[in-house]
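User: Hey, quick favor. My workstation is busy. Could you predict this chain's structure for me?
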Amino acid sequence: MDASHVNRLARTERIGRAAAGLAIVEVGAGSLLHAFKVPLSGHALALNQAFFLARFVRVHPDLAGLRTAGGEISVVVALLKSLSPAGKRLTPMLAISAQGVFFSLGTTLFGPNFFGVALGTLALAVWTAIQPFALYYLLYGKELVEAASFYLTKLSALMGWELTNWFWAAGILAAVHAFCALAVAGAAWRLPNEKVAAYERKLLKWSRSQTPAAAPIRPGLYEVCRQVLKDLRRPTFVASIVMTAVFFAFADVPASRVVWGLLRPIAVGAIVFFLLRWIRPEWVATRVKSKSLVAALRYFH
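Assistant: No problem, here it is.
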């Protein structure tokens, strides 16, 4: 066995172990936070993901392919997240994988150093803030912008605000988010190994205690369709459809546009929900032959 093969095996094991650890936190802590409907839980989990990825880069300076390791780890974590039988799956899976890709932009462009990690963490935090709007734009298209403008105008008149006030509020929130992201990157890079190890052990132990039993390897078609219908009945999804319908009622738009604007998000949502419910991580590992995912599944279970 040559040295290059040994290095590849070591890289696979390290990425698999890191992905499994982060997935345990995402499944365990994520399920609990969802159950108690904790505000901003998605942002907290995103910052924790940034900490894990930044620390991975910090403690593996000689690992091959370290510039893109954050993205690879996050994609594996997103697939493992689909094993969670409790809580949301769609938005967390998309968030985890996309956040990892954005983190890797910093390390790819500027190297696996503190500057690259800091910019990657900042990019991850920015995407965390805008992802909900990006997903709803994917579902609704330009109708989302028009509906948002309609409700913003009504809300501004009710509160006596001007448009600049909303820009200031958004700017302050963005600054706070950026500060938190850079603080996380600095902590991951500067904290002593023993303190980080103690934090990770406690977090993993607590997350394991909160992790629900794993979902079936491959649910039947009836069960998948039942879960998809449940996804489509989520309050946030239903509320968005209702708000869009109200906007159409006041906007006086053609009936064809109303039908398209209301049926499009339902159809796209149903397709995406179905695919994410039907495709399991083990199936993906078999088809794409992801060694990192296979290793992560071993540590995850």
